Amino acid sequence: MARSPSLAIPVNAVAHLGGHASRWELIALGCDPDYIDLSLWYREILPARRGWHASRETPEGLGRDDAVVHWTRRDLPGSRLVVTEEVARWQAASCRAKRPG
To answer: 30, 21 in Cβ contact below 8 A?
Structure first.
């Protein structure tokens, strides 16, 4: 499948992914790592967490220092940015239960 040339532009790729994307997702869409860094430098996209980027339109408090990234294969209600309080509590409890030690 051919990639869209416009998605090789980091700001477009982040928007395409809902305003929040990992560096690897951007690279998979065709963004050059140097172009990602330049987009961060010029504040076209914003650093959210290590390895994660957000659009400038992302509301404050979504994907910044208070965010915790969770991975799951389950189909849960919510979006890439926000889940319900119930789902967040379930995920936090699940992660604590899996921690070694």
So the answer is: no
